[in-house]
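Private note to self, pasted from the team thread so I don't lose it. Backbone tokens:
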């Protein structure tokens, strides 16, 4: 699928200078990692935030920055192709990226995160960039925001590389979903008090009733539509609050 929306990497510097911050002061940053994901690609945590930023940025006059592709991968690092950088490196890199946005004239950043292994680092980076440049940041961990969407479309919440993330790829890049692996790909039910390292499957769920990968493209599109709408409402609520209470 071709990218949509206004992308930072496509802009000429003169046009950027005429646009930021006068016409728009908002940047969207997709953040992911390279990690094993059941029947979907190693880049799943990048593809989904990129898609959401392409859908959401135009609604808020935002410019879409190139994604941060490398993140902190922990539990699934043993799986072929999974890749990590250290927590300190990631946090410093994200801090400098966000600080740079503040120095470029952006006043608001939406960080769309696709991966659970570096949530603390992202929050710290957002705080540091605010301290340095006054940049307001909204860090979103999309999958955590939408439990109802999975229940409504799939009958239950899924988990890592389960119904939700498989839907995210199926809706946008169906050719990258390896449905032929569905049969042989196990899901591991995470139980309280049990911490295997590495984990014994790349699909991780909370119970036997959790929603597993589903090859239905129509359901996937419906699910992602709901995710997009919830994210849009959340961004609007936060932006409205910033405007009303803090004048930005
Ligand atoms: Zn993921």
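Design output:
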């Amino acid at each position: 699928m071709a990218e949509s929306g206004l992308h930072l990497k496509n802009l000429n510097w003169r046009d950027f200078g005429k646009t930021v911050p006068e016409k728009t002061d908002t940047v969207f940053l997709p953040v992911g990692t390279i990690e094993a994901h059941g029947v979907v690609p190693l880049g799943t945590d990048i593809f989904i935030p990129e898609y959401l930023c392409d859908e959401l940025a135009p609604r808020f006059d935002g410019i879409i920055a190139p994604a941060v592709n490398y993140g902190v991968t922990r539990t699934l690092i043993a799986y072929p192709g999974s890749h990590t950088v250290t927590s300190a490196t990631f946090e410093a890199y994200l801090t400098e990226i966000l600080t740079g946005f503040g120095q470029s004239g952006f006043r608001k950043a939406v960080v769309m995160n696709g991966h659970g292994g570096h949530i603390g680092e992202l929050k710290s980076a957002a705080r540091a960039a605010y301290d340095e440049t006054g940049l307001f940041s909204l860090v979103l961990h999309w999958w955590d925001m939408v439990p109802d969407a999975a229940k409504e479309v799939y009958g239950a919440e899924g988990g890592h590389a389960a119904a939700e993330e498989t839907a995210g790829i199926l809706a946008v890049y169906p050719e990258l979903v390896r449905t032929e692996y569905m049969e042989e790909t196990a899901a591991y039910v995470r139980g309280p008090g049990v911490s295997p390292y590495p984990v014994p499957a790349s699909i991780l769920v909370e119970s036997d009733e959790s929603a597993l990968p589903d090859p239905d493209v129509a359901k996937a599109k419906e699910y992602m539509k709901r995710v997009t709408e919830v994210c849009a409402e959340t961004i609007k609520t936060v932006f409205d609050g910033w405007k009303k209470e803090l004048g930005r």
